[in-house]
Write a structure and sequence with these properties.
By secondary structure, this protein is mainly alpha-helical. The protein is built from 9 helices and no strands. Helix 3 runs parallel beside helix 5, helix 3 crosses helix 8 and helix 4 crosses helix 7.
């Protein structure tokens, strides 16, 4: 299986491949006979995971990450990593449960709930305009808890895509690699957002409060449009 990258995504392809190769080396260090199988699985599904989260045609997960990390700057990098990891924990749980058919859900309902998570996250940002991010604990924060809970919903959304791609065997390897690819894509998206924020605030002297307002307001508007476009109505 080969995954086609757009012109915007190609510079990031080497990141996925390099990280995947490092994981393959660790996994096959004591099991050399697994090398051909593991190598193929990891490279394919890490790329699939990255491609899915970084797909501009399905930008709802990307928009959620924007809303989730809008209140942070580079000085909060530890909190940002904890935040992204919290989201990964949430969506990994339901992605695994759905992959192994332990839970079932209405796809139309999940399609509606994903923009709801974007809306609620964006609205919560309006109460965090005056330095609330810097006062939050790195790990045990309300923002991280929200990332875990809303991640549960996004994981069910991811499962619709992954379910069509999974092979008949080595599902755990495929699932692990797919989650790693998603995590890499998430970190890159948040990094790009932090870079954009640093430019806007330091070069154009925009106040952090205004930056949060602009991002969150845009996310609110887009999430409402996404909700109205779902089949639930």
């Amino acid at each position: 299986m080969r995954v086609a990258f757009s012109a915007q995504e190609r510079p990031c392809r080497q990141v996925c491949k390099s990280f995947g190769k490092a994981l393959i080396c660790l996994l096959t260090l004591h099991h050399p006979n697994l090398t051909p199988i593991v190598s193929s699985v990891f490279q394919t599904y890490i790329t699939l995971g990255f491609h899915h989260i970084f797909d501009f045609r399905a930008y709802d997960h990307m928009l959620f990450l924007l809303a989730l990390s809008a209140i942070y700057t580079f000085s909060d990098w530890r909190k940002v990593i904890a935040l992204v990891t919290s989201f990964t924990i949430g969506h990994s749980i339901t992605l695994a449960l759905a992959t192994f058919h332990i839970i079932r859900f209405d796809a139309a309902l999940i399609e509606f709930l994903i923009p709801v998570t974007i809306l609620l996250t964006s609205l919560s940002n309006f109460f965090k305009l005056n330095g609330a991010a810097s006062r939050q604990p790195t790990i045990l924060s309300v923002h991280n808890l929200m990332a875990v809970l809303f991640g549960l919903i996004h994981g069910m959304g991811f499962s619709n895509f992954l379910g069509a791609m999974l092979g008949r065997s080595s599902k755990w390897q495929q699932l692990l690699a797919f989650n790693i690819g998603i995590e890499l894509g998430q970190l890159l998206i948040v990094l790009l957002l932090l870079v954009a924020g640093a430019v806007v605030m330091n070069v154009f002297h925009t106040k952090k409060r205004d930056w949060i307002l602009v991002l969150s307001s845009a996310a609110v508007g887009i999430s409402l449009v996404l909700m109205l476009k779902t089949n639930i109505f």
